[in-house]
Amino acid sequence: MLKIKNNDSGQLLIESMIGIGIVVVGLLGVVGLLSRSASLNRVVSQQLIANYLASEGIEITKNIIDANIIKKDPWNQGFSNGNFEADYTSLILQFNQDRFLSVDSTNGFYGYQSGAPTLFKRTINIKLVSSEEIKVNSIVRWNTRGGGQFEVNLEDHFFNWRP
């Protein structure tokens, strides 16, 4: 009787290795996608915070102008050309010291007095266009862990429209 030898003994092992390889490549793709998504989520979150901080810089300037009007002082009193900083408690603009903003963990407010340091620096640039107009740029800058440098620059113009 003639015996035929079957050479399928290693086929299952090879098929298993190929299957495991395909699964590993698929899982690595998913893990890479999740990692990139978390990184982008952090960047978007930082951009949102920076937009609000820049808006706050404009609002602080507006509040100082409104306080001048209420006190019946000249509407643009205390303003001069240059770079300044202020936080939500400021009654005047202070010359820019290139400081990082801190966030108070108890109330979530950003300022310079207390709290945990953040990545953000805010500069309020004032330009006196004329006696009837002030140009304000509120600029927030920050660096990310990957070495990326970001900036949000909001601009507003204030006019002496009150009689």
Summarize the structure.
It contains 1 helix and 8 strands, in the order αββββββββ. With 163 residues, it is α+β, with helices and mostly antiparallel strands.
Protein model, in words:
With 163 residues, this protein is of the alpha+beta class. The protein has one domain (14-159). It contains one helix and eight strands. It has one helix at residues 11-70; strands at residues 82-85, 94-95, 102-103, 110-111, 116-117, 121-130, 133-143, 149-159. The protein has a five-stranded antiparallel sheet, covered by helices on one side. Strands 4-3-5 form a three-stranded antiparallel sheet, with no helix packed on it. A hairpin with a 5-residue loop joins strand 7 (133-143) and strand 8. The longest helix has 60 residues, at 11-70. It is rod-shaped. The chain starts with 10 loop residues before the first helix and ends with a strand. The model has no long low-confidence stretch (mean pLDDT 89).
